[in-house]
Specification:
- The protein is mainly α.
- Helices cover 48% and strands 3% of the residues.
- A two-stranded antiparallel ribbon has the order 1-2.
- Strand 1 and strand 2 form a beta hairpin.
- It starts with a helix and ends in a 10-residue tail after the last helix.
Length: 130
C-alpha cells in the first residue's frame, strides 16, 4: 500500500483511514493532521475532508470539539451546534445563541414585573383573622 504522501501528491487521497483494522485513533489523527497542514489542504471544509480521506464525520467533529484541530489553523472546520446540530465554529450557533439571549432577557423582564406586583400588593399576602 502506498503512503499517504505519495497519494496526496497525485491527488488520489481516497485512502480510507477508518477501514484499516490495525490503526489506532491517534495514528489516524496524526496522518490526517499531517495531510491538513499542507498549504493547499488548510482551507478544506468538513465535507471535503470526509470525502477525500474517508475519516468519519463523528471522529472529525470530536477532534474539532476537543481542540486538536485548531480553528485558527483550519478556519473552515467546524462541529455541530450542541443545541440544533448545525455546523458552526463555536459550541452554539449564532441563531441558537440569540434565541437563548432573547429568552433570558424575557425571563428577566417577567421576574421584574412579578417582583413589582408583589411589592404593590403587600396586603394581599397578609393573612387576616375574621
Amino acid at each position: 500500500m502506498k503512503s499517504l504522501i505519495d497519494l496526496t501528491r497525485r491527488g488520489l487521497v481516497m485512502l480510507l483511514f477508518h477501514k484499516r483494522i490495525d490503526v489506532r485513533e491517534e495514528d489516524i489523527f496524526s496522518e490526517l493532521h499531517h495531510f491538513l497542514l499542507r498549504k493547499n489542504n488548510r482551507y478544506l471544509t468538513n465535507d471535503e475532508i470526509v470525502a477525500l480521506t474517508g475519516v468519519s464525520p463523528e471522529l472529525l467533529y470530536k477532534w474539532v470539539k476537543a481542540g486538536k484541530l485548531k480553528k485558527s489553523i483550519f478556519p473552515n472546520l467546524g462541529a455541530p451546534c450542541e443545541r440544533c446540530g448545525q455546523i458552526t465554529q463555536a459550541k452554539i450557533c449564532v441563531s441558537c445563541s440569540s434565541s437563548i439571549v432573547g429568552t433570558l432577557k424575557q425571563e428577566e423582564k417577567d421576574r421584574a414585573w412579578f417582583n413589582q406586583i408583589q411589592r404593590n400588593h403587600v396586603r394581599a399576602s397578609t393573612y387576616h383573622y375574621k
